[in-house]
Every structure is written in C-alpha cells, then in structure tokens.
Amino acid sequence: MESVVIGINFGSSNSSIAVLAPNGHFNVIANADGERMIPSVVGFSGDEEFSGTQALQQAVRNPKNTLQGFRKLIGKKFEEIKISSDVTHPDMVSKDGVPAYKVSFKDQEHIFTVPAVVTKQLKHILEEAEAYLGSKVTGAVLAVPTYFSEHQREVLAKSAADAGINVLQIIQEPVAAALAYNFGQNPAKGDAQDKTALVLDMGASSFDITVLSVRSGIYTILETAHDEALGGDAFTDELVNLVAQEFKKKTKVDVSSNKKALLKIRTAAEITKKQLARSASAPCSVESVAEGLDYHGSINRLRFELASTKLFAKCNQLIEHILEKSQLTAGAIDEILLVGGATRMPKFQSKLRDIFPETTMRLDQESDEAITVGCAAQASLIAGFEKEDIVASTKENITVTPHTVKPIGVVGSNDEFFTIIPNHTPLPAKRVFEFGQAAAGQQEVYFALYEGEQDPLPPKKEKVEKVDIGSDDEEEDEEEELPAKPTYHKTTLLAEVVLKDLPAGAKAGSLHIEATVHVDVSGKTSITLREKKSGKQVRAESA
Amino acid sequence: MVLDFLLPSPPKSWSADKTSSFHAKITTPTKAAIEPVGRHFLAHARRHIHSRTFSEDEKVVSEAEAAARSAGDGEQDNSDLGDEPEDPAMLRRDPKDWKDQDQYAVLGLSALRYKATEDQIRRAHRRKVLKHHPDKKAAHGGLHDDGFFKCIQKAFETLMDPVKRRQWDSVDPAVSDSIPNAKSKSDFYKSYGPVFERESRFSNTQPVPQLGDANSAQDQVEGFYDFWYKFDSWRTFEWMDKEDGEGHDSRDDKRYFEKKNKAERAKLKKEDNARLREIVDQALSLDPRIKIFKEQANKQRNAKRREKEEAEQRAAEEAAAAAAAAEAARIAAEEAEKKGREDGKKNKELLKRAVRKEKKNLKALIKDNNYFLPAGQTAGPAEVEKQLEALDALLDGAKGLDQLESVRQTLEDGVKNGNIAEVFKAEVAKRSA
Ligand SMILES: Nc1ncnc2c1ncn2[C@@H]1O[C@H](COP(=O)(O)OP(=O)(O)OP(=O)(O)O)[C@@H](O)[C@H]1O
Ligand SMILES: [Mg+2]
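YS: structure for the whole thing
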C-alpha cells in the first residue's frame, strides 16, 4: 500500500496537520472553511458531539459541556491536577484515579476520561486529514513538549492508537520546530555544521524555551525551561481586564467576578489581540456583556503592551535564566527559532531583539505551524521504514551517546583558538577542514590539535530596568554593547602531525591541505592530512 | 569548510623522522541523548546498527541509491507516465476556470508535456478517470463534488484536439521560454542543446536538426544554423485571447474583441520570433565549433600560402645549388690538371735519380769486381779504361730504369756465378748494338 503520512501538532489550544505537497514543501492543510488551526476542543450539545471549530463556537453558550486544555492532563493522576470548578468549566471527577470530565449529553450524564477525550480530538484530526487527502492516512508523527514524561507519551500514543492513528513516532516539539526551520540540516551547503539555537515556543498556555545544539545535522537538547503561567492566554487575560475596566467606566457595571461575562469578553479579546499584532489599534465588540449591555470599543496596541509589561518582563527573565543555566552568552546563540502563535506579538519580538541584537531571528515559517511542519517532515523521512526499525532507532543504545565536553581545535600564531569539533558534539564525530600553508615554498606542514576551554563570561552588568512605557523612544540609549561571541583558549595539546614532501614552489596559502579529524565514541582521535592536488597524505591515530 | 588559518612548518625541535605524536586524550565524553529526528540522525542510527564508519556508510548508501534508480521502473505498463502526486490545491480547482488549469498536470503528465504521445494521453486520462470518477468517490465518502473530474475531462478534450493542443502547448507556462544567459560559463552544448530541443516542438518541418556536439561535422553545423535562421514556427497565441464579455452580443462589441485579440496575437507572435532569433544569434556567437571552423579555414588558407612560398624558395635554392656545384667541379678539374702536371715533373725527377743510382751501383759493382775482367787478369789502367768505356756504352744502350735494373741483375748474377767477364762482354755486345 502506498504510504500517506502526516504530521500532527496536537497543541493544548490548537491542533494542525501538515502533509508533503507535490512541490516538495510541507504544507499545513486547511479545512473547508480555509482554517488551518483546529481548536483542541471537544464539545457536547444536545444529541451531538463536536470537535474543533464547532466545539469552540459553543464554548460561551455551553461551557459546562465544552472541554478544553485536556492535553495538559494527559497521563496525570486525578490528585495531581488543579481543578477550576465554576460555571465556565466542566466538572471533573476521578475515574480509577484518572481525571475525567462529567458532561451531559443525550439527556444523560456521561463520564469521559482525559485519554478518551484526547482520542476524540485525534480522531477528528485524522478525519480532517483523510477528507483533505482523499485517502487513508497510513502513519503520523506527533510532538510533545520536552517536559512530557515517558508515561505521558505512552498515554498519548495509546489514545492516538485508539483514534485509529498509526503513530510512527512521537518527537519533541522544539526539535520538530527545528526540523521545520531546517535548522542546521544542510551542513554541506554553506550552512555551518555546528550551531546553537534558542527555540522560543509561546503557545496559548505556556512558554517553553529550549537551547538546542546541532552538530553535523544531529540535535541535542542542552537545556530547557518553561513557565506554565506565561502564554497567549495570559496576554489575553490582560486584554480582558482592560476591556472589563473600560466596560465598568462606561456602564458602571463591574464584571470582574462575573465569570460568564468575562468568558464572553475573552472570545472577543482573543480576536482583538491577534489583530493588534498587525495594526496599532483594533476594535473589540462584545454583545450583551452583562445586564443586556454591549461593549463597543477599540484597543490601542500601546495600551495592551503597557498592560502586559509584567508578562513581557517575565519572558525576558526566563530567557536570561536559561542562558545563565546553560552558561551561554547571548552572542553564543546563532539562531532564534520562533514557535507558537503568541511569539507573533511585535513587542515580544522587539524585546527579544534587545537581548539578541545580532542573532538571526527566524521568521520564515509560520510560528504556530512550525511543529506541525516538522512532524510532517519527520513522518515523510521514516514513512518507508519498518515499524521495528523506527522503534530500534529510538532506543537508548542509539540515542544516548557520548558527547564532547570541550571544544577541540587548532591555534593560530596569535594563540587564537579555531574550533574544529565544538563541545556538545555527539560521538563518533568527523570534521573535515581545509587549510593553506603559511609560507611560500614550504614543503612540510605542522598540524597541532588542542583541547580548549571557553574564556570566562564577561561579568554581567546590572541592568537598570527602565520603566518601559512601551514606547519606542529608546534612541538615547548609551552606546549599546553587543553581546560577546564566546571565545576559547587552548588548554591541552592533544596531538601533532606533520605532512612532508609537499609540492615544491607553491605560493603561501596556495596548497589545499585537508585535515580530517575523527573522534570515536571512546574519545580516540585520528587525524588525516592530505594535500589535495598531489594526494600526499599522512594518517595518525591515538593509541 | 575552509578555516582562515595557515599551517606552519614543524617547530625546530621536531625530529625529521617523526610524522606524529599524541600527547593527551580528550576530556572524558559525557553521555547525553541526541534527538532521533532528521536524516542526519537516521544516518547516525544506520552507522551504529551496522557498525559502519562514516565513509563506509556513505558508500553503502550511494550504492543503494544507484541500485534503486536502475531498478524500480519496468513492471507496470504505465510506468512511462510516472507517478505524479496530485497537488491538493489542483484537486479543488473550479472546473469553470479550466482554461487556466495546467492541462498536463491535471492528467498527471507534467513530466512529459508536449512530448506526450496520443497513446500516453489516453492512458493517463483513463488512469485519472478510474481514480476520480464521481461515483467512485462518493462510494468512499469523498467530500468533493465532481469538480476535478470535470477538469480531467476538459484537459483530455484539449489535448486530444490537435488544434487546441497546439494552442495550449504554445502557451504552456511550465515549459520555459527562457534564453540562456550569454555570459554564463556553463557548457555550451549542455545549456543550448535542451533549448533547441525544446524550441523544436514549434517547427512545421520535422524532424528538426539538433545542436549536436563538439564532434559534429561542419556541414551539419552549418545546416543547423541555416535551418534555425529559416525556422518556420506554428506557435500561436489564440489561447490568450480575451473572452468576449458576457452580454455583449452586439456585433460591434464582438468585432472590437476580435480585432483586439488579433492585434495582441500578432504582437506576441512577433515577440516570439524575435525571441527565437535571439536564441539562434546568441548560440551562433557562442558556438565553439564555429570558432574552430573559422580557425580551421584560416589555417588552411595560411597553409596553402606557406606551401607555395616554400616551393618557390625550394626552386631558388635548387638553382643556386646547381650553379655552386658546377663551379666546384670546374675548380676541381683545374686543380687535378695542375696536380697531374706537377706529378709528371716529380716522376721524371725520381726516375732520373733512380737511373743515376742504378748507374752508380753498376759503377761500384765493376770496381769491386776487378773491372769485370776474367779472373787472374790484372787490371791495368788501359784495361780499366777500356772496361769503363764498355760500361758507359752499355749504360747508354740501356734505356730506362727497367733495362738498367735488368742489366744490373744480369751482371750481379754473373758476379755470383763467376763468369762475369763473359756476361759483361755479352751484355755490352747486346745493349750497345
Ligand atoms: N497574531 C497573533 N498575535 C498574538 N497572539 C497570537 C497570534 N496568533 C496566535 N496567537 C496566540 O497564540 C496562541 C496559540 O498558539 P499555538 O497554536 O502555538 O498554541 P498551542 O500550541 O495550541 O498551545 P500550547 O503551546 O500552549 O500547548 C493563542 O494564545 C493565540 O492567541
Ligand atoms: Mg504549542
């Protein structure tokens, strides 16, 4: 049977599906209404059961029977979860220790466990995909946050299987996003083979940061941090408060503890917030907020940003925190990969620029589609594989591998350290570099390999946190210091190799001497020097 | 990767016979998890599972790829059509816009296009019908209506009608109209060969001479350019005609549209002719063979001229040589003559000397042998006188060296035999007679 594989992003507020298009790109598919995001919502009303957009549409009207945010609860025990039980949330009970929703449906009370609800959502996703493709889906790759436990992954896999999905693999969200951005995947084509990225994923309900290194196309997660109180929802809340205040000013009606009213405002505010990413002000209209009174107003972006100052500051703190934890300067980050819909906020990006004035900020991928696209890319890579092979390749004996601790490189005449194999490189590793010879007519070259160490980080300047009025009048900044790129110095001489009998009479730097450095899993090093034109070579290997 | 770093000579302390020395191990690596995604990870897993080195793995993979490429085709009778994936956007096209659809892509013939044969179009159509027939789709709970099926039918109609197919092929946006960059350094045949192959489809005369390669003969190459400068193209631009707007059924409106379309067509056609002309001009100016032919012609002309010059020179040289030889012969003859003369003089001299010597010998002989008197007879002055006179007479009678020699011989024999007196008498008698 021909394989038809898809990538699924099952986010806590949105899901999406990507497939390989004939042009070789991975596209997120749109439903009949042209929507690419499928709300991760399941709802029950009367005799009917809905998923996605239709389920979300009844959220305000029928909140008790509208289930949202269930992805967070996957694999959790009932005691572990925080329950907000009020008129705007469905009731939750424990079913054999597993959290479950109590809904009324077909004039009856029903209990659906979290895994069962997840299955409903995933089934809906699968149906959308098959409707679009016009054929059966033979396999899918899904992604989970880095903090998902093994148990949570297993529960998700089981729910997916129950939904009829043949799960090829479950991968990590930031890694999926990196694949979508093609981060370090073409090391041969002028793309450096060794880089470090900061993956910033701000979805609806959390802000997840990952320091991801790529070494010759292979990813290693160096550090993660996340804040579950930070996300698009938190920003929407600020906007809801703003609108509630405005409403109170206009109507003298206080809705700050009227959950139903706040829910209504929320739906409108969510739309307003997205519009504010594109324009300096956006309208916000809510019909019959409370006591039959409507709200019609417009929100200025600056006001919204000002109201969110604390949230933005928290974002920056989390970023500073992870940099410190991973012993990296801002200059050590080669690329920033933006993931999640909330990273579209202009203020978020401009604050990021302040920390990383020079780092490449990747915007060439819709941020909330990156994970989906990465899953599809991985799915099509492994589509032809036997199930056992996929499983075998993800086993620890293959994925857990020794990594270099310190950079290995060569040292220039002024003691400058050039990295050949950086730290955090999975072994075995091989790097090929080309050098010239220093002097004209030189017929012997000397290659010395050193291990190095990073120079101490510059002392952190105490930043005077300006009271940021959200305005852009930051021109009068004292001369901005660029974050330093990390530098290294040699510590240990590892090996010396000499290549002799080179062609005579060559101009300085004109010979092409290829140095291949190979380090195996035990740290054993071999060096090959080869003059490309004459083929003269020497190979030496540590004992 | 090229590092901005130059390798120095070995340090002074480096001993000449050493090529390497290892000093320390790297810091003990720490275990960490790599992410099992991406093709580079898959390569890592493969190397691990099969315990291959980097280069072994590269080799195995490239061999496998080559094998897969060479196999794969063959078993299906529709394999010539390929297996083009269907762009989901295409499947959702509105059949009303059939004129703008990619007629080949709809039938899954994107790879073949104008090269598709009628038979291929029929088979491709059949294959699509089997897949997209509305009845079949409904059975599978298909969401879509029969929109794409209509698109298929329209494409088939277009491509099966020779006139319409030409109209479509003339404007197929998927086939390039590009002119290669004249400044490009790429291989002339590789960049222009496909261009002419592509343009050939518009020729009324078939088959169309192709660019050929570096080994093509001169008359072929010249014939090629000749053909392309006289290219007779059927390319037409009717497909681009603006539709007569609905409702305007007045004759004037119609005429107006017709006129406009006709003008537009003519303009496009003119532009296209210019475009082709530019391709041919450019190819001619860049064709390395044309340069070679010019050089060859030049060379031939030069060679002929040189040959003629050489012949003339050779004739002049030959004449000069003959004259010189004649002169040398004359000088030699003169010399020989002179020499001959001188030799004669010298011989006479020698002869004279020999004769003198011979006479002296005989005179000595007579003195030593009692003046050739009979033994016992004492040689008185009168006898001596008489005997010497007799010898003189004998010597006078003996002409030349030969005779002198034989006289001496005879006399010497007489001396030896002891009868010299008689021999002398006889000899004198014989010679002086
Ligand atoms: N243009 C925009 N401006 C501001 N916020 C936006 C914009 N587009 C989307 N968002 C926000 O992004 C969030 C949804 O992002 P995304 O779809 O990545 O979340 P998710 O993956 O489902 O959630 P999570 O990552 O928390 O599980 C919502 O809060 C939404 O308001
Ligand atoms: Mg997310």
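YS: worth flagging: Chain A touches chain B through 95 residues (CB under 8 Å).
IM: good catch. Also The longest strand of chain A covers residues 488-499.
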